[in-house]
Amino acid sequence: MDLDNLTSETKDRMAKAIAHLDEELKGIRSGRATPALIEGVKVLAYGNPMSLRDVASISAPEPRLLVIQPWDAGNIDPVVKAIRESGLGFNPAVDSNVIRVPVPALTEERRLELAKLVNEKSEGSRVAVRAVRHEAMERVEKDKKANRIGEDEQKRLEHEVQKATDEAMKLLEEKVKAKQEELAQI
Q1: Residues 118-127: pLDDT tens digits?
Q2: Looking at the domain that runs over 35-102, which CATH code has it been given?
Q3: What average pLDDT does the segment 68-72 reach?
Q4: Average pLDDT over the chain, rounded to an integer
């Protein structure tokens, strides 16, 4: 990491931690039906295990319903079987050439478990952001001690890194709060 790119590299690495949290949160089921809940389910299609998103289109026309339309009608039964065996607790029903998957409401106990899981996953991202900040600050300090930068430049870089950290933490908090609110909806 050279000092010219320190701030942009730091921001990029923090953005990756936030993007990772985003992906993790998408997989946590709230009471609302979203295609992300089942798109990763493995379906035995054409003799190979494939992700559901690779063999069908998935939509959520209603808050508690997923509709799956396999591109090949021969994959309807394998898709139904894969969803039933996925351990997600869904009971798909075939309706001509589409599969309807009602998403049951979450129990209060399950909501609390999921809220705790959201907090755990967000803590991992917070740690990653702080680690990136720590690395950048160490780099600035090292270059200051080696007399490659002056005190003013050190203060400016430290300020920029701290500002990027604060922005990343704020964004993480917003994402966690939004997911917590989504989980709280009945």
Answers
A1: 898 899 999 9
A2: 3.30.1360.40
A3: 92
A4: 88
Q: Tell me, what DSSP letter sits at residue 147? A: T
- Name the pairing type of β-strands 93-95 and 65-70: unpaired
User: Which structure tokens are listed for 136?
Assistant: 């950048």
Where are the alpha helices (H) located in 27-75, listed in sequence order?
Answer: 52-55
Residue 179's identity, in one-letter code, is: K
- Roughly how many angstroms between the first and final C-alpha of the chain, as a whole number? 47
Amino acid at 162: Q
CATH architecture of structural domain 6-27+107-184: Orthogonal Bundle (1.10)
| Residues whose CB falls within 8 Å of the CB of residue 156, separated by 6 or more in sequence, listed in order | none
- Domain positions in the chain are 6-27+107-184, 35-102
Whether pTM > 0.85 for this model: the answer is: no
